[in-house]
């Protein structure tokens, strides 16, 4: 397959590498249909994330179509279209069973800093990312969500990271309705934080940024 590959700080190229294969019976293989580039990918690109290895593929925000499902997978089958959250969780450990799936104990044997994350260095488990034609998705019955038939990939892609990230910021602000909310930073996550603030009932939302074009929205 073709995949983005990291060669060192500020150097990535699209190269050919072997297609991913089922490694555990609860994996699926997706043909990637959309893949986002995240602000967090810049930290990898700039060489700032420890243990970002030469040859790894970035991409933790993607949708795809199932091309192969492992024997234990119950909820997905070939042809299903899915959007995949960026953090990989087992669904059954201490943290997952309390809804804290980003702290999953079972998907990142390399460190305690976080759960496994697609395409985000060996510090988060060394999983290959979705800026590629195909990607392996472990614990496939837990994270991936099926895309409704009447929606297309671009309508749901942002559920993989930036929409819930912005929503969580608004939720942590404990908006009850009627407040004035200030959002610092009007990049994509900031825009979703603003949208979420409106959704949660804010009366007024102020946007702050020093980049002019971002204030045009
Ligand atoms: Zn992201
Ligand atoms: Zn878990």
How many helical elements? 4
**Attached small molecules:** zinc ion
- By CATH, the superfamily of the largest domain comes out as Medium-chain alcohol dehydrogenases, catalytic domain
What is the CATH architecture term of the largest domain? Alpha-Beta Complex
SS class: alpha+beta
Helix and strand pattern = EEEHEEEEEEHHEHE
**Uncertain spans, ≥5 residues at pLDDT below 50?**
none
Strand neighbour order, sheet with most strands = 8-3-4-5-9
Main beta-sheet annotation = 5 strands, antiparallel
Strand content: 15-25%
Helix content: 10-25%
Overall, the morphology is globular
CATH class label of the largest domain: Alpha Beta
